[in-house]
Design goal:
heterodimer, A: alpha/beta, TIM Barrel, five-stranded parallel β-sheet, three-stranded parallel β-sheet, globular, B: alpha/beta, 9 helices, about 10% strand
Chain lengths: ~260, ~270
C-alpha cells in the first residue's frame, strides 16, 4: 500500500504542466504504483477565496475511490470554520492552508485560530513549505516560502494540533524537529518529496536521527515527477516494516485511518 | 550502458569531513541505478582554501590530481573533466594538456569567468584540438549577479558556442535551479549545445520541454548532486521515449561527443 499525501489536480498558473487532470493523476498513480492520493485543488491555492475550489474537489474525489480530498481553508475569510465541518462530511484526511500564498502572517491570529480549531476537531493541518524551487519561479510568483519558525510556533500554539508539512528539505526539518520538544515534534509529520537522497543522503540521515515514524510518502505531483520519491526509497536499505511505515502505515496509524 | 555526464567527488582537503562517505555513497547508489561510468569533476578545494567557483591554481591541480587517482583506481567506473580557471590562462592551458594527456575526457568550466568572455576562447581551442566537450556550469536565466560565482546562462554559453562551432558544449544541470524554460528557448537552434538533464529539479513537464526544444539527439543523462532525481528522470523517460531514443539519452549521445576511447563499447 502506497499513499501519496501530497498531490494536486487542476491547472498551475505559472507554467505548462502535463497531467493536471484527474485522469492524468490517475495515470501517473498507475505508472508508479500509488494506491491512494490525497488530492488538493491546485488553482485555488492562488485564488482570493481558496475554499471556492473545494466543491469541485469534493465532487472529483467522490467519483474516484483512490482520491481523498484535502480541502483548502483560508482562516482570514469569514465562515472558514464551516470548511472544517465540510471536511468531516467529505471524509477528508486533512485540510490544507497556504498562508504565504493567501497573504497571511504564517503565525498571525488567523493561523493560530485555524490551528486551535484543527486541534480541537482533531483534523490534521497540511502546510507546504513551497511548491516550486525559488530559483525558477515566475517573476510574478512572489509569495515567500513557509519559514521553519512558523511551524515551530504553530505546533506550540495548540497542544492537540497535528501538522503535516510537505516540500521541506533537510535543514528545515532538522531546525523544526530539534527546535521542538519531543511532545511537539511527535505531532509533526514530514513528506519526503523535497529531501535529497544519495550521495548527500539527507533522507537516510533524517531517518536515523529523527526517526522513520515522522516521515510519510508524498510526491508533489504533477508539479514534480512522482518517480523521485519512489527512487529515493529504492536507494535506501530499509526493512519491509520501515518502508511500509513511510509509504502508508504512519499515515494510517497516526494521521488518518483509511 | 548508462553514463552520468555530471558527477562530482570530494577529497581530503575539502571542508567536508564526510568526503569518503559521500564518494562511496555515489558509487554505491550508482551501482544500484546501473550507472556504468561517472564522468566527474572536482572544483578545486570545494571552498577550503579558495572559493568553489574561483579555485586557485594549486587547488585546481590538487583536485584534478585526486580525480585522476580516482580514475586510475576505478578505471571501469570513473572518468574525469579537467577543471580550469580561465583567469589564469597559462595555468589553464598547461593543466588541460596535463590532465587530457593523463586520460581525462572533457573540460569543466564552472563560474570563474562569464561564458561569453574572450578568456574562454583559448580553452575552447584546446577542446577542439583534443576532441573533448566542455561542460559549462549554468544558472538557468541569470537575472542578476549571484554571490560567490560569475554565473553564466544559456545566452552567454550560446555566444561561446557560436564562436566555437567545432566544440560540443554541455549546458549543465537543466534541473539545477533557475528558469529552464528560458534556457531551452535559447539553445533550441544551437546544434553544438547539449542539454545535461542533471540537477535536483524534477519538474513535471521539464523533460517533455527538453525533448521538444532540442530533440533526443541533444539530451544527456546525468545526476549532479542528487542521484535520486537522476534515477527518477530516467524512470520517467522510459515511459515517454522509445527504446532506441532512451539509449541515445542514456549513453549514445555521450559516446558521440566524448573521445572515441572514453567509454567501454556496447
Amino acid at each position: 500500500m502506497r499513499i501519496d499525501v501530497n498531490s494536486f489536480v487542476g491547472a498551475y498558473p505559472f507554467r505548462k504542466v502535463p497531467g493536471t487532470s484527474p485522469d492524468g493523476l490517475l495515470r501517473s498513480m498507475d505508472r508508479v504504483g500509488i494506491d491512494q492520493a490525497w488530492v488538493a485543488h491546485l488553482p485555488s491555492v492562488f485564488w482570493r477565496a481558496p475554499a471556492d475550489g473545494n466543491a469541485w474537489l469534493y465532487e472529483t474525489a467522490g467519483r474516484q475511490a483512490r482520491f481523498r480530498p484535502v480541502p483548502a481553508v483560508h482562516p482570514g475569510l469569514a465562515g472558514w470554520e464551516h470548511m472544517i465541518a465540510g471536511a468531516f462530511s467529505a471524509q477528508a484526511p486533512a485540510v490544507r492552508c497556504d498562508p504565504m500564498y493567501y497573504g497571511l502572517d504564517p503565525v498571525g491570529s488567523e493561523m493560530r485560530a485555524l490551528v486551535k480549531v484543527c486541534g480541537k476537531e482533531q483534523v490534521p493541518l497540511m502546510l507546504a513549505v513551497r511548491l516550486e524551487d525559488a530559483r525558477q519561479r515566475h517573476p510574478n510568483d512572489r509569495a515567500g516560502e513557509l519559514p521553519p519558525w512558523a511551524v515551530r510556533t504553530l505546533v506550540r500554539s495548540d497542544s492537540r494540533v497535528r501538522l503535516l508539512i510537505t516540500h521541506a528539505d533537510r535543514p528545515f526539518i532538522e531546525e523544526v524537529h530539534f527546535g521542538s520538544t519531543p511532545e511537539e515534534s511527535a505531532r509533526i509529520w514530514w513528506d519526503i518529496s523535497w529531501v535529497w537522497g544519495p550521495p548527500e543522503d539527507h533522507l537516510e540521515t533524517l531517518l536515523g536521527t529523527i526517526g522513520v515514524e515522522r516521515f510519510v510518502f508524498g510526491t508533489g505531483q504533477p508539479l514534480r515527477l512522482p518517480e523521485t520519491s519512489i527512487a529515493k526509497l529504492d536507494l535506501l536499505d530499509l526493512t519491509k516494516e520501515q518502508r511500509g511505515a513511510i509509504e502508508s502505515q504512519n499515515v494510517v496509524t497516526d494521521i488518518c485511518p483509511l | 550502458m548508462l553514463i552520468d555526464v555530471h558527477a562530482h567527488f570530494l577529497h581530503d582537503r575539502s571542508p567536508r569531513s564526510d568526503w569518503p562517505a559521500r564518494n562511496a555513497s555515489r558509487l554505491r547508489a550508482g551501482d544500484r541505478v546501473g550507472i556504468t561510468v561517472h564522468v566527474a569533476s572536482i572544483l578545486g578545494s570545494w571552498g577550503a582554501t579558495s572559493p568553489i567557483y574561483f579555485p586557485s591554481p594549486p587547488d585546481i591541480e590538487y583536485g584534478n590530481d585526486f580525480l585522476l587517482q580516482l580514475q586510475r583506481t576505478n578505471p571501469a567506473r570513473i572518468r574525469g573533466y579537467a577543471v580550469v580557471n580561465p583567469n589564469f590562462t597559462t595555468h589553464a592551458l598547461a593543466e588541460l594538456a596535463r590532465c587530457l594527456d593523463a586520460g581525462m575526457i572533457g573540460v569543466k568550466l564552472a563560474a570563474s569567468r562569464r561564458a561569453n568572455d574572450p578568456l574562454l576562447d583559448p580553452i575552447c581551442r584546446v577542446a577542439r584540438e583534443r576532441g573533448v566537450p566542455v561542460l559549462q556550469h549554468i544558472w538557468q536565466h541569470r537575472r542578476r549577479e549571484y554571490p560567490g560565482q560569475e554565473a553564466s546562462d544559456a545566452t552567454e554559453l550560446g555566444a561561446l558556442a557560436a564562436r566555437h562551432p567545432g566544440v560540443n558544449f554541455l549546458l549543465a544541470h537543466i534541473g539545477g535551479g533557475g528558469d529552464w524554460i528560458y534556457s531551452l528557448a535559447v539553445v533550441r537552434d544551437l546544434p553544438n549545445v547539449f542539454v545535461d538533464l542533471s540537477g535536483s529539479g524534477v519538474d513535471g513537464g521539464m523533460l517533455e520541454a527538453c525533448i521538444e526544444a532540442v530533440g533526443v539527439n541533444r539530451l544527456l543523462w546525468g545526476c549532479d548532486l542528487t542521484i535520486d532525481t537522476g534515477w527518477a528522470k530516467l524512470r520517467y523517460l522510459e515511459h515517454i521515449l522509445t527504446a532506441d531514443e532512451l539509449e541515445l539519452v542514456k549513453w549514445r549521445n555521450a559516446s558521440r561527443i566524448f573521445p572515441p576511447t572514453a567509454f567501454p563499447t556496447d
